[in-house]
Amino acid sequence: QLPTGLYKKVLVILHDSVLPYMNEPTLMMDFLTVAYGIGGAISLLALNGLFILIHQHNLEYPDFYKKLYSLLDPSIYHVKYRARFFHLTDLFLSSSHLPAYLVAAFIKRLARLALTAPPEALLMIIPFICNLFRRHPACRVLVHRPGGPADMSEDPYVMEEEEPSESRALQSSLWEIQSLQNHYHPDVAKAAAVLNQSLSEMEDDISGLLELSASELFDKEVKKKAVDVPLEFEQVRGLFGKKNDIFAEHFSLD
Amino acid sequence: SNPFEVKVNRQKFDILGRKTKNDVGLPGVSRSKAIKKRNQTLLKEYKEREKTNVFKDKRFGEYNTKITPEEKMIRRFAMERQQNYGKKNIYNLNEDEELTHYGQSLAEIEKLNDIVDSDSDTEERGTLSAELTAAHFGGGGGLLRKKVSSEQQDEEEEKPKSRKELIEEMIAKSKQEKQERQTRRESALELTEKLDKDWKEIQTLIARKTPKSERKDKEAEKPKPDEYDMIVRELGFEMKAKPSERLKTEEELAKEEQARLQELEADRLRRMRGIDEEANKKRPSHVSADDLADGFILDKDDRRLLSYKDGKMNIENEEEEGKEEEEEEGEEEDNENEEESQEESASEDEEDDAADGHSDLESDLESEGEAAENKEEKKHKANENESQNVEKLDPKREAAKSELPYTFAVPETYETFKSLLAGRTIEEQLIILERIQKCNHPSLAVGNKAKLEKLFGFLLEYIGELATLDLPELRTIDKLVLPLYNLCQMFPQAASDSIKFILRDAAHDLEEVIEVKGRATFPALDTLIYLKIVSLLFPTSDFWHPVVTPAFMYMSQLLTKCRITTLQDVIKGLFICCLFLEYVSLSRRFVPELINFLLGVLHISLPRNQAQGYTVVHPFTPVGKNLELLLVCDKEDLKSWEKKNVPLSIVTRLKETSRTEINHTRLSCLALCFDLIKKCAVLYESLPSFHEIMHPVRILLTQHMPVNEYPEKMQEWYHSALKELENKVKHYTPLICEKKKPVPLKQYTPKVVKVLEFGKKQAGSKKEQERKQLIQRHKRELKGAIREIRKDNQYLARMQLSEIMERDAARKRKVKELLGSLATQEGEWKAMKRKKWDN
Q1: Residue B391 — pLDDT band, cuts 50, 70, 90?
Q2: Taking CA atoms, what residue in A is nearest to B588?
Q3: What region does B369 belong to: left with phi over 0, alpha with psi -120 to 50, or beta?
Q4: Given a cut of 60, is residue A210 above it in pLDDT?
Q5: Which spans does this entry mark as compositional bias, Acidic residues (chain B) (predicted)?
Q6: Based on the structure, what is the number of domains in chain A?
Q7: Domain range enclosing A184
Q8: Rounded to an integer, what distance in angstroms lies between the CA atom of residue A101 and that of residue A138?
Q9: Would you call A252 and B648 a contact, using CB atoms and an 8 Å cutoff?
Q10: A99, B135, B279, B489: which has the fewest C-beta neighbours closer than 10 Å?
C-alpha cells in the first residue's frame, strides 16, 4: 500500500509514461483494479490506466459500468481531475451498444449531481448530456414523454441505488436540467434551455469545454462590451437601505 | 432648327426599354455656346493676365442669393444712411437748420408734447390775456384807446405811438411772457425729475410698502395722466392671456411617478427574462423558398477595433499582454501629448488646489478654535444638506458656510481628491461632493464629463480605502453611496467600466493566489462592499448585465474556492451568501453555490463524524481540521445568547474578545444561516427539483442538528427554516419538448432579384454598389474635365495665333505705308530733279 500522495502521482503518469513501455502491461492489472476499488480521486485516476488495459489488452472487467456509476458523487464537479474524468466517461459512454437504462441512469445521476456544480462544470456537463441523448435516442423519454402520467408526487429515480438497472431512471424526467434553466449564469441557462427543443443531429464538441475554468469564464464576461448599461432605478438610501434588505436584518455597520 | 446642323447618331439595333440620350446632337450650337462661354471667362482672364489691379465689387449683397432684391435694396439704403449720418455736408446748407416755433425747436416741442400736457396750457389758454383778445377780436380800437390813455397818464411827454409800433410791442411782450412761462415750466420739470431720481434711490432702501402720505406727495408732483390716456395705454400694454400649463395636483404627480416606476419595472422584467432581446435580435429574416435551410452561418467577425479613451487604450484583456506591450509605446506618445495639454489645466488646478488647501488650513484653525461651536455648525450643515434651497438668513449658518468654498475643481488625481476630503465630517464631505458635481456639471463645460467620470473612480477608491481601514468607516461609506449613485446615473458607461475594472483586479488576484498557493482566502472587506454597491447601482435581475454577471461569477468563485479557516471567513462567506440572495431576490435564479455553502456552514456547526446521508462539497470537507468552527458547547454561552446583528468590522479584526462573545457571534452566524436557508426555500420553491436541491440540507437539519441544546430563540429560527423546507408539495410533471416547427419543403421557384438599373452589375451589397457607382462617376467626371482642359488650351492657342496674325498684319500695313510714302517722296524728288535739269 502506498501513501495517498504517491498513489496519485503514480496513477497520473501511469497511462502514458509507464504502460506503453511495459512488456506485459497486464501485470499492472491487479494494481489498477485495487486502485479502482479504493474510491474517490484515486479511482478516478486509475480509470485511465484501466481503460488502456481494457481497450488494448482485452482486459475483462466485470461490472465496470456499475463501478463507474458509483464513482459519480458531488465532488466530481469540483475536483482537479474533472477534465480527465469526463473525457474518459465520454469515451466509455460513446458506444451505441450500451443499454438505454444504463445511459439513462448515468444521465440522471449526472444531472442530479449538477445541482451542486459550479457554472464552469455546468457549461461542460449540459452539452455532455445532450451528446448522450444524441447517441442514445431511446433515452429521449427523459426529456420528452408525451403520454406519461400527468402528475407525480415523487421522482421515480432512486439516487441511492447502486445498481444502474434498478434506479428506474427511464421512468423519470430531467427536472434537474429544467431547474438549471433558472441558473444565474446566462450561458448555463441558455445551454439548459436547449433541451426544451428537439436536439440537432450534430454532436457538440465538448473537448474545449472540459478544461474550462472559473477565471476563464469570468474573463469572458468582463471582456464583453455592452452598448448601454441598464441602471437601478430605485433611489439609494444607504448601503443597506434597500427595501427588505437582508443585510439590515443580520449585519450592522459598526 | 436647320437640318444641316443636326447630327444623328445612328443606332445599329433598337433595344426595347433603353433610353437613348445622345442620339441627336447639335454640334454647331454647342460649339458656339462653348466659345461664347470661354469668351466670357477664359478670354477675360487671358487678357488680364499681366494686370495686377483687381476689380472688386463691394456692393452690399451683390452676390448673395439668399436675400431678396427688395431686402437688398432696403439694406443698402439703410447702410447709406448710416454712412452719411453725422457727416456734415459742406454743400448742403439747410441740413443743420433747426425749425423753430416761438423760438424753440419743433423737435423739442414734439418730444415734450406728452409731458407738457394740457394742464398748464389750458389755464393759459382759458385766460387769454385781455390785450390779446382785444387785439384779435376787438378791431384794435379799444385797445388802442386804453393803451393810449394809460400811457398818456404815465408819460405824457412821449409821442403817441403808431398802431404798428403798438402791435409790435405787444407781440414782443407776449413773446417774453411766453418765454418766461416756458422757463418756469422747464425748471419745474427739472425739479420733478430730480425728485424722481432721488425717490428711486430711496425706494430700493425703504421697504416695499410706502406710507400713503409719501406716495400722495409724489403723485401730486407728477403730472396727473389723463384717465382716458391711462385706459388706452393699459389696453395697449395689457398682456394677452396665454394658456399656461396647469399645475399638477399631488395625486397626478404621484400617478405619474407610479407610471414611470411601472414602466421601469416592466423594462427590468423584460431584461430579466432575457428572451425578448434574443427574439428581437434574430428576428426571423425572410426565408425565401429557395433557402436550403442548411443553417450555415458565417462566423461573426470578432476582431475589435482599438479605441482610446482618456488617453488610455481600451484593452479589456490582460492576456494579450504581448500585444499590449507593443502598443504601449504608441500609447505613451499619446499620453505625452495628453500631458502637455493637461499641463495647462493642471497649473490652473494647482492654483485652485492652493486656494483650497489654504481654506483647509483656515477651516482647521477655526475648527480648533471653535471646537465648542463645531457641533452646532455640523447640525446646521446637515440641515442645509437636506434643504438646500432654504434661504440662509441665520448669520451663524453663513459663518459655517464660509468654511467651505462654494466652487471646487474636480481633482485630477486621487491624492488631491483625498486631501480634499481629509479631515472633514461626513456631512461636509457630502456637501463637497455635491458642489463638485454642481460646479462641474457636464452641461457647463466640455471637459467636465471626463472629469466627473474620473471622480466616480476616485470615490470608489476612497470607499475601498475606508473599508480597508483598521476600523472601517462604514457609516461614512453608507452616506457616500448617495453621490456614487448620482454619478452612476449620470455616467453609466464610465461607472460600469470602473467597477468592472475593480472586479477584474479582484478576480485576477484571486486567481494568482490560487495558482501560487493552491488555495485562496476570502478578500478583504472592501471587495465585499464593492459587491454590495454593485447591487445598489445596477439592476441585478437582468438576464445578462455587463457588471452584474461578472460580479456573480466572482462571488461564485469566492464561495467555491476560498478556504474556510476562521470565524471571519464564515462571516464573509455568509455575507456573500446574503449578496447572492439579494442579487437573485427578484429574478429567483438558482445558485447552487449558495446552497452548498449553507450546507457547509451547517456542517461545521456540528460535532465531528456525523456526515451521513449528505455530502459537502469543495471548500468544506467531510473530515479535516476546520470542522466544528461554529460549534458551541458552552452551555452558559448558549443560554445567554441573544440574536444580534453581526458588526461588519469584525471582519477586518476580531477583537481580543472573550470566549463568550465569540461563541455568541458563532450562534448569530448560525441563526443567520437558518434564516438564509428559509429565504432560499421561499425563493426556490417553484423550481421543479426543489426537493432534490434541498435534500441534503433537510437531512442535515432533521437528523443531525442538536436542536434541543440550542436556546429558544435559535430553535425558533431553526423551526421556521425547517417549516419552509418541509411543507412544500412534491410536484413532478413529465417533460415534453416544445413542438418543432415544420421545416418548409424545398421548392425550386426562380430567384427574383430586384433590378435597379440596366446594364449595371448587380452583384454585391448596397454599399458596394454605391462605391462602384461613385468610382464610375468619378471616372466620367475626370474624362470630362480633361476634355474641357484640352478645349481650353485649343481656344487659347487660337486666340494667341489670331493675336499674332493681327500684329503681323498691322506691321505689314505700316511697312507698306512707310514704303509707299518713301516711294512718293523719292518720286517727287526725282521729278523735281528732272525739272531742274530741264530748266
Answers
A1: very low
A2: A182
A3: alpha
A4: yes
A5: 316-354, 362-371
A6: 1
A7: 98-146+155-223
A8: 9
A9: yes
A10: B279
